[in-house]
Amino acid sequence: MNVIDIIVAKRDGRELTPAQIDWVVEAYARDAVAEEQMAALSMAVLWRGMSRAEVSRWTEAMTRSGTRLDFADLPRPTTDKHSTGGVGDKITLALTPAVAACGAAVPQLSGRGLGHTGGTLDKLEAIPGWRSHLSPTEMRSALRDVGGVVCAAGPDLAPADRKLYALRDVTGTVESIPLIASSIMSKKLAEGTGALVLDVKVGSGAFMKTMSDARALARTMVDIGTDHEVATVALLTAMDTPVGREVGNAREVAEACEVLAGGGPEDVVELTVALGREMLSAAGLTAAKDPATALADGSAMDVWRRMVRAQGGDPDAPLPTAREHAQILAGRSGVVRRLDALAVGRAAWSLGAGRDRKEDSVSAGAGVRLHAKPGDRIQASQPLFTLYTDEADRLQDAARELTDSYTVEDVAPDHTLGPPASL
Ligand code: URA
């Protein structure tokens, strides 16, 4: 097999054969295909696309580059959720224990944040003592004994994707739907879940800025899951404005705990319950307890406390807080009409909640509190945002990010995307 023939075939718009796909992914994973050759192939894929058969095979080859976990022998069915990422998206934190409390096992392999979107592991690491790295045996025990686990993907999980994602990041080839879909799904297939719910975010703070791109990404991922016998469904959900009222690692853990205690912001609860119902239904648990009941009756909170303890954390320890804070006040009275997710994400990032490079550390206490969301009425001089940081000299940059992030008008906003919608 010759890599140049494969690059030329895709460059000229031809469909790659299963044998070509298996060979090129496997050869790339063992460094037998050069980075510049894979960069050329990725660019050809970005321009020419891939058929359903190609993308499915490509995903399978990437999964096969590492180990595939198997939890089929657990007494409970496995089900997971993947979000394509957004600002204030702390849904996994309450959703995992809520769904486990309803009878499923949730093996959630999560990532860290990069840029303006937060990462679930960074949030959980705000809990004193909590550790993200578990061996497959520890993961299995947690699933069997507690029902839910959120941990880091080990280096053996789809290593071809790890290598390819780093290459795409520096060659302008991240924004290819087949490459994004196969990257996400190769890790989910390797994780060994039997069912999967995809929360595909749409809007300024999301990867996908338009409904048509979000729908195409969701469709591609659902097809890959279906082709590999993972019951996969997708919801398209709004990311024009942050989820909930807190953005930043420890701040989001605190907000998720409010949801687990039966309270919390309405949008966080609505999304948690909608995704939880889909996860249970995809796992075939149609007669299970409702996730809304698990949040209200304390059973989700019990699972959360056990989950945190199982990974070395103390669920009763006070969460870290930032040393400095400042408020931004409303310049006029009216109704908040727009509150841009991307600007809030960038502000939280510049306060220290996010990282520029993979190896950077993040501040647990940094972030933004949103005192008003679209549709809320405010009075002039009331606080709109509180900014939290460990370093006072970060406040000015964050405030600048937020300058044009919102509008206050006399009339209420029209919602661009309503409640979570099925694909
Ligand atoms: N997340 C992934 O895991 N892969 C992508 O390509 C994009 C987002």
UniProtKB/TrEMBL annotation:
It is an enzyme of class 2 (transferase). It comes from the Bacteria. Homodimer. Residues 335-409 form the Pyrimidine nucleoside phosphorylase C-terminal domain. It comes from Lipingzhangella rawalii. Pfam families: Glycos_trans_3N (PF02885), Glycos_transf_3 (PF00591), PYNP_C (PF07831). Its EC number is 2.4.2.4. Belongs to the thymidine/pyrimidine-nucleoside phosphorylase family. Keywords: Glycosyltransferase, Transferase. This is Thymidine phosphorylase. SUPFAM superfamilies: Nucleoside phosphorylase/phosphoribosyltransferase catalytic domain, Nucleoside phosphorylase/phosphoribosyltransferase N-terminal domain, Pyrimidine nucleoside phosphorylase C-terminal domain. One of its GO terms (molecular function) is thymidine phosphorylase activity.
